[in-house]
Design brief:
Number of helices: 14
Number of strands: 11
Helix content: 25-40%
Radius of gyration: 23 Å
Strand content: 5-15%
CATH class of one domain: Alpha Beta
Structural class: alpha/beta
CATH architecture of one domain: 3-Layer(aba) Sandwich
Strand order of the largest sheet: 3-2-1-9-10-11
Shape: elongated
Order of helices and strands: HEHHHHEHEEEHHHEEHEHEHEHEH
Length: 384
């Protein structure tokens, strides 16, 4: 069984900045420059692997978990739908898909921000071996398609059938939800026209009665979700698969095309690893291999609150790798990660990634120009 995605909810301490000069923005860039460029013989690639979290996507207008405007900070009663609930309960699925229906518009229109594009440049410069991301927004593969991205917790761009395991494009699924739920569709259009779903200001959203949560989820206080309908997997509807007992599942749709409660299969879930769901073994192995092949690991915008991410940095620690962390808030277990490491090879920064990473790229480019400009003259071989 793979690792389960369970959030860590204990309070996190304020970060201790390493080195002390990294408290300023320019000092942080210089510290990160030293970290990225420091020679390190460990790891086959000699490069840095990135582990990114929700904090790196805040500048794209998405929510994070523990930031000043994060879900756990502003919405103390927030509780996600857990995987076992989604699988077992028709009502839980209605709740999930209704909220996802409202949240998809903002997620779908959001784009990678300067931090993602800076990572692309760092990859082209040869400093990054790969990116492991906890995020499900697909910004990394869009921003840097030639730099390997491993989506640890899956992605929202598809729905996945629990019976046949086929994927269904989320855009098409959204269109199906609109057709099945005309009242909800009208409400969504009203929210869009009011600006409640387009503003990136969390205060404005809450003023309009909305609570934005991670994973494309929008909470409308006081709304009843039981009227929401969702479609079955179109493939299973045509050809129901066999279940674990070898019997064919029952997959039915009502006259409008909505999943019928008498069905025993054909349920579509988001292609994300939901809370309480296990990460597939191949993904777990690929993440471990990405750590093992690198010389250093740099955490960007993550509190490491899920064990699936925390254990990767623990693995890097056990291997004696240099560790860097850039996160505005505290990070789970960070005092352990830095306790025995040579602090000259480590860095702990609390600066916004959408400003820090482009600044790092500028410094690296300037250093390369200076290096080439001062390169000793070597006569061409034909000049001898």
């Amino acid at each position: 069984m793979g690792l389960m995605r369970i959030p860590y909810t204990a309070p996190l301490p304020d970060p201790t900045i390493i080195p002390a000069s990294a408290k300023s923005f320019s000092g942080a860039i210089n510290a990160l420059y030293d970290f990225i460029t420091a020679p390190n013989a460990s790891g086959p690639s000699g490069k840095t692997v990135l582990l990114t979290g929700a904090g790196i996507s805040v500048a794209s207008g998405l929510a994070d978990y523990r930031g000043t405007a994060g879900t756990y900070t502003l919405n103390k009663t927030y509780r996600p739908v857990y995987f076992h609930e989604f699988c077992a309960s028709h009502e839980a699925r209605k709740r999930y898909w209704a909220r996802s229906f409202l949240g998809w518009t903002n997620l779908h229109k959001s784009k990678p921000n300067p931090a993602h594009h800076a990572i692309a440049e760092l990859g082209k410069m040869g400093h990054i071996s790969s990116v492991i991301t906890q995020n499900v927004d697909s910004f990394h593969p869009v921003a840097h398609p030639t730099l390997r991205s491993l989506e640890l917790h899956g992605y929202l761009r598809s729905a996945l059938c629990l019976s046949c395991r086929r994927e269904y494009p989320r855009n098409q699924f959204q269109s199906d939800l609109r057709v099945l739920n005309p009242t909800w569709s009208a409400f969504l259009d009203e929210m869009i026209s009011s600006g409640a779903l387009t503003t990136e200001n969390p205060e404005e959203r809450r003023a309009k009665g909305l609570k934005t949560n991670p994973d494309g989820d929008v909470d409308i206080p006081g709304v009843e979700y039981s009227s929401f309908r969702y479609p079955p997997c179109p493939h299973c509807l045509k050809d129901p698969p066999r279940n674990k007992e070898g019997e064919k599942d029952v997959v039915r749709a009502d006259d409008d095309g909505a999943w019928d409660a008498s069905s025993t299969g054909g349920v579509l879930k988001p292609a994300v690893i939901m809370f309480g769901e296990s990460i597939p073994g191949p993904v777990k192995t690929a993440a471990e291999e990405a750590i093992d092949e690198a010389a250093k690991v740099l955490v960007l915008g993550s509190s490491l609150a899920t064990y699936s991410a925390w254990r990767l940095i623990k693995r890097a620690k056990d291997r004696g790798m240099a560790i860097g962390i850039c996160n505005l808030g505290g990070v789970r277990g960070e005092e352990q990660f830095f306790a025995d490491l040579d602090q000259r090879k480590s860095v702990r920064i609390a600066q916004p990634t959408e400003k820090l990473l482009p600044g790092l790229v500028d410094v690296l480019r300037s250093a390369e120009i200076e290096r080439l400009g001062h390169r000793p003259f070597v006569p061409a071989h034909w000049g001898n």
